[in-house]
């Protein structure tokens, strides 16, 4: 998982293609400045999700059932977490009652083997391949592999027949790679490095790992997953939780004891809501739902723009643009809370966040989402990233259940 940080770091070319906070494309002043489209409130969220899926099928899908990274600068590349996120999106459509998404989900899952490292007994997913599945290589990312494991567990929930076991087995393979990758060490008192280059230890990488270990322990009863879930949870709470805001910080890096980067991001904390919920279920500890609710309340205090009625990208005061995937993740966090406690306030935030993103980042004619857009719909970036389409498809399909 990758993010561009404006005002937080020097402008540099970052060639990593994981789901973390760096990206080689810097969207900005070259973007369009349209008048704001009206929010798409008259159409059901399921219809919106299907419209997004139609754009994806017509513009990003290949004959191999891979997906182009975007329609501009990386139209000949496949990124691992983009393709995994599309499986996540299709699983949500299936769960919403659209069975037509199931074969796409299964065929893209088969393509995902192109990313898997077959030269290493530990396996693990590389971050990028060509559209035909050739050319896998480079670094492997903890957050990509952790998230993909969680994607497969959701696909497991909607799959049928023998496919269910295949999805579960591959989710376990993702977790087993994390355990055996050598990317957990005693630097900064523990924690997973972001990737095999070991530049930093972020909250989000550890958060998705905690989710995966917790969920797998619940499903399998394997105590190794329980022990790893506890190890990751303890490190996160000790090192990355900011009690003054009730939120998790970005990352720790540097020499010695490390430098803590205390910026707060919407998707980091949405990930931690789900991590706490799953950990609490795995350990039969109700206090973790309380912790998850506290993160949700803190997000809705610190990371919510009351005028825009949507989640901000991060707490940098100069950051006045939103991204469909990373800001949209806040909706998933709120839905997860509602699933547990049935407090309607979470759904209000979840719905308003989708509506805000539809208002400022969605092209009403093509149904595509721009990579970044300002709070008023200004400064739309020219890139149409596959992962942004996938996440909007997903959260709108999830929201449909509560229309």
TrEMBL record:
InterPro entries xref list: 6-hairpin_glycosidase_sf, Glyco_hydro_76, MUG_Protein
Gene Ontology molecular functions: hydrolase activity
Pfam families per record: Glyco_hydro_76 (PF03663)
Top-rank taxon: Bacteria
Keywords assigned: Hydrolase
Recorded coiled-coil stretches: none
SUPFAM superfamilies: Six-hairpin glycosidases
Keyword Hydrolase: yes
Protein's name in the database: Glycoside hydrolase family 76 protein
């Amino acid at each position: 998982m990758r993010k561009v940080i404006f005002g937080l770091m020097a402008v540099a070319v970052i060639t990593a293609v994981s789901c973390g906070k760096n990206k080689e494309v810097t969207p900005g002043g070259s973007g369009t400045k349209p008048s704001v489209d009206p929010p798409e409130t008259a159409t059901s969220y399921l219809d919106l999700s299907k419209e997004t899926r139609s754009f994806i099928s017509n513009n990003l899908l290949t004959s191999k059932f891979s997906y182009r990274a975007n329609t501009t600068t990386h139209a000949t590349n496949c990124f691992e977490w983009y393709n995994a996120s599309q499986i996540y999106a299709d699983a949500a459509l299936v769960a919403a009652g659209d069975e037509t998404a199931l074969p796409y989900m299964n065929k893209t899952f088969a393509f995902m083997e192109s990313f898997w490292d077959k030269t290493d007994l530990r396996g693990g997913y590389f971050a990028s391949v060509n559209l035909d599945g050739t050319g896998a290589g480079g670094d492997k990312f903890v957050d990509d592999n952790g998230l993909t494991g969680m994607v497969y567990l959701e696909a497991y929930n909607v799959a049928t027949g023998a496919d269910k076991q295949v999805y579960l087995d591959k989710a376990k393979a993702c977790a087993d790679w994390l355990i055996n990758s050598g990317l957990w060490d005693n630097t900064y008192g523990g924690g997973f490095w972001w990737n095999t280059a070991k530049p930093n230890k972020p909250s989000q990488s550890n958060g998705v790992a905690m989710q995966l270990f917790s969920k797998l322990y619940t499903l399998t009863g394997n105590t190794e997953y329980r022990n790893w879930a506890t190890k990751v949870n303890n490190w996160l709470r000790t090192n990355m939780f900011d009690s003054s805001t009730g939120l998790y910080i970005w990352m720790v890096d540097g020499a010695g004891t490390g430098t803590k980067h205390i910026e707060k991001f919407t998707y980091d904390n949405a990930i931690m809501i789900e991590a706490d919920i799953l950990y609490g279920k795995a350990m039969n500890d109700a206090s973790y739902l309380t912790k998850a609710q506290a993160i949700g309340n803190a997000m809705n205090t610190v990371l919510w723009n009351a005028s825009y009625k949507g989640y901000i990208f991060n707490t940098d005061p100069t950051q006045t643009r939103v991204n469909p995937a990373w800001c949209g993740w806040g909706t998933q966090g709120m839905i997860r809370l509602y699933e547990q406690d049935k407090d309607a306030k979470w759904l209000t935030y979840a719905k308003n966040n989708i509506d805000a993103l539809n208002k400022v980042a969605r092209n009403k004619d093509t149904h595509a989402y721009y990579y970044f857009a300002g709070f008023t719909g200004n400064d739309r970036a020219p890139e149409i990233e596959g992962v942004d389409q996938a996440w909007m498809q997903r959260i709108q399909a999830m929201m449909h259940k509560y229309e």
